[in-house]
């Protein structure tokens, strides 16, 4: 793959997007929590706007992707995402930035993520082929880990010195540069086969295929429940760090950097683990790590542990390491299992239908966690997420369809 010019160009774009995403993952929530003093309920609405496009647009996007070339769609989505992010610092400079502005920006950005993300996953397979998908994803994970090591610390310092909107602007520039780079990619993309079927019939065929494939059916309900818990966790995590643990943006950025080591560890572990234990057991290991390191234990970190705020920050950083390692150990095998279970003619529909099924419940998790936190506190909201995560992990381990996936 390192002699594949198209892969190298795509890899460069993925590095740009990875660095930009790590910056905005810290900067956008801090715009809400610090600049606009958002409540837990408002933070949960931001998380809901992240998940809502998957519910609204995944199904029609899947049919549309199966009927169109993927690269032009990917380019258009990245340009719109860059402009959307650039609107946040512009609104701040004009004095009109508000929570509704962030809701709208988040909704547009993640609508493009649903459509462009589906096109991107298919485009990667065109570039590297199915058989090299895990190898490609492990390379992406290595560079993602580098961005997690460097970008959050830089973002935290940038936010502390210049405020969060400047960090968001850097991410906007990365999306526009990525689109320009991908525009130069020389990939022969075959024209999709024309379809005479009604789009609703093709959507139905996607559901039927997943229902009749036990592995995909099991992945749909289990990852759907995980996403519901994740969005509840994500809605409250920044509030836990800044308001409960008293971490500054700079300290939070440094703590988040340890997640890069977790991703680096997972990039080195995922290939030997899937080779020895199979994608299913590797994925279950990753799920357990996300639940333990993120959903369960982060809410138990005391403020000023042993009388030292840095001790609390160190505990938070260690759990970020475990959580980020787990995310990639579950996500990479999941992508591989889904790809191997799906024929080419269904690829766009299955990617989008699975995204619909796995993210459709996420707004419920975000809203429920925000409501609990508004009434009983942030830690109580996170504790509820953790308890449900433990039940989900046990149910997934008990499922034979994931556990029985053998090494290639």
TrEMBL record:
Keywords of the record: Cell membrane, Membrane, Transmembrane, Transmembrane helix
Keyword Membrane: yes
Keyword Kinase found: no
Transmembrane parts of this sequence: 43-65, 72-95, 107-129, 219-239, 251-270, 282-301, 313-335, 356-373, 379-398
InterPro entries attached to this UniProt entry: MFS (IPR011701), MFS_trans_sf (IPR036259)
Membrane-related topology note: Multi-pass membrane protein
Main location: membrane
SUPFAM superfamilies linked: MFS general substrate transporter
A GO cellular component entry from the record: plasma membrane
Subcellular location: Cell membrane
Entry superkingdom: Bacteria
One example GO MF annotation: transmembrane transporter activity
PANTHER family: INTEGRAL MEMBRANE EFFLUX PROTEIN-RELATED, MAJOR FACILITATOR SUPERFAMILY ASSOCIATED DOMAIN-CONTAINING PROTEIN
The name this protein goes by in its record: MFS transporter
């Amino acid at each position: 793959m390192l002699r594949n010019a198209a892969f190298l160009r795509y890899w460069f774009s993925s590095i740009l997007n990875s660095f930009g995403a790590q910056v905005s993952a810290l900067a956008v929530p801090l715009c809400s929590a610090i600049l606009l003093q958002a409540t837990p309920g408002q933070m949960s609405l931001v998380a809901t706007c992240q998940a809502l496009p998957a519910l609204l647009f995944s199904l029609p996007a899947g049919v549309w992707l199966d009927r169109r070339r993927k690269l032009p769609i990917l380019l258009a989505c990245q340009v719109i995402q860059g402009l959307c992010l650039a609107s946040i610092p512009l609104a701040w400079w004009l004095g009109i930035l508000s929570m509704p502005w962030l809701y709208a920006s988040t909704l547009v950005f993640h609508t493009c993520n649903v459509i462009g993300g589906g096109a991107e996953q298919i485009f990667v397979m065109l570039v590297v082929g199915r058989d090299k998908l895990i190898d490609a994803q492990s390379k992406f994970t290595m560079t993602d880990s580098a961005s997690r090591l460097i970008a959050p610390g830089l973002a935290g310092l940038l936010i502390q010195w210049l405020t969060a909107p400047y960090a968001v602007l850097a991410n906007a520039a990365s999306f526009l540069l990525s689109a320009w780079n991908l525009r130069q990619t020389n990939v022969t993309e075959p024209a999709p086969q024309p379809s005479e079927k009604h789009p609703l019939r093709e959507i139905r065929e996607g559901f039927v295929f997943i229902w009749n494939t036990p592995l995909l059916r099991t992945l749909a309900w289990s990852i759907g429940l995980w996403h519901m818990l994740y969005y509840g966790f994500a809605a409250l995590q920044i509030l836990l760090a800044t308001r409960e643990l008293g971490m500054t943006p700079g300290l939070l950025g440094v703590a988040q950097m340890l997640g890069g080591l977790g991703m680096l560890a997972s990039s080195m572990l995922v290939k030997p683990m899937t080779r020895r234990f199979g994608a299913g057991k590797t994925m279950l290991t990753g799920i357990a790590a996300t639940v333990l390191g993120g959903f369960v234990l982060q809410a138990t970190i005391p403020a000023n542990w042993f009388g030292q705020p840095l001790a609390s920050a160190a505990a938070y950083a260690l759990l970020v390491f475990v959580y980020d390692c787990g995310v990639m150990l579950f996500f990479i095998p999941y992508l591989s299992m889904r790809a191997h279970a799906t024929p080419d003619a269904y690829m766009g529909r299955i990617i989008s239908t699975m995204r619909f099924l796995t993210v459709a419940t996420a707004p419920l998790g975000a809203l429920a966690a925000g409501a609990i936190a508004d009434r009983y506190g942030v830690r109580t909201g996170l504790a509820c997420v953790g308890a449900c995560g433990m039940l989900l992990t046990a149910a997934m381990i008990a499922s034979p369809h994931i556990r029985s996936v053998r090494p290639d």
